[in-house]
Amino acid sequence: MTLYLDLSVLQSVPAANLNRDDLGSPKQVRYGNAPRIRVSSQSWKRAIRLGVEQDLGEKAARSRLVPAKVQQALERAGWPAELAAFAGAQVAASAGKKGIGTEDAGHTSVLLFLPEAAIDELATVCTEHRQALEGAAGKKKPGQVLPPPTIEAILKRRTASISLLGRMLAELPDANVDGAAQVAHAFTTHAAEPQRDYFTAVDDWLGEAETGSGHLDTAEFSAGVFYRYATVNVADLTKNLEGDLKAARTVLASFAEHFLLSLPQAKKNSTAPHTVPDLAYLAVREHRPLSLAAAFETPVTADQKGGFSQPSRHALNAYAHNLNRLTGDRNRRFHGHTVIDPQEK
Predict the structure, then answer these.
(1) Considering 158, 189, 216, which residue would you say is the last residue of a domain?
(2) Residue 38 is assigned to a structural domain of this protein
(3) Strand pairing of 195-201 and 215-233?
(4) Could you tell me the residue range of the domain that residue 18 belongs to?
């Protein structure tokens, strides 16, 4: 039997730009023949991951700078800079059968996702094989100096967040992890489009005879009520954590908390959009997860007082009721909700 934890959230966000496209505009999607503001799942997952790692005290890093970080660790241990740089490059070159490609300045050609503690472990391997590294440092084609199985084993290590959210690395297929969590793109429950903000900055040292601003520009932002959804396959999470049920419960609780309370940090200093959900709904289901996103295929319209939050909550409640009437509750083990308006409890 497979259990899924479904989380649905409605959250009102004021003027902000939580997630930008390549032109700096808030991301969008067209749904139900209406434009909506969208926040990508990747953006929100990063905020969730950082919170989970803070809770559990085991940080991971996604970076192309692993060789450079190993080099820095070795230099702190007294290695000559040139030899340390070669050793860092060998970490990538010795990963797997063909190695991982590197570019200038200690960058790998792809992002690696690994526990932060792995850097010290890799530096230790380099120290254990320092003599071999010194002998190969001057060669044009040194090959794989460090033991590939050892390097690969370190790069394959997982943290709870990697077990939860997954990892993809084409160069090391055995390091891939199918994430237990699925996070949907958030979108506004109603039609919404970006708005433009014209702003200026004062030059404090202009002369008395000088007028005008020191800088002027435009920026885009948006506002709205977002529907957010995520689901976690509890069996997959437990499997990724090597069958540790206690750890799975801890990770699941941390994920739920940070899914509810985290927020992408883009443009936070100029918008401070630090709201919490208006409504949160949780369900534990067997066999398959169920999103409530279709509640908003028809865009919500503002009520007489002009807001979208209350009609969004009503639309979600009506859809959940109809969905339960259609599918029944035989596969639902538990469900519950909380809402910010005490009159709606």
Answers:
(1) 158
(2) yes
(3) antiparallel
(4) 3-59+180-344
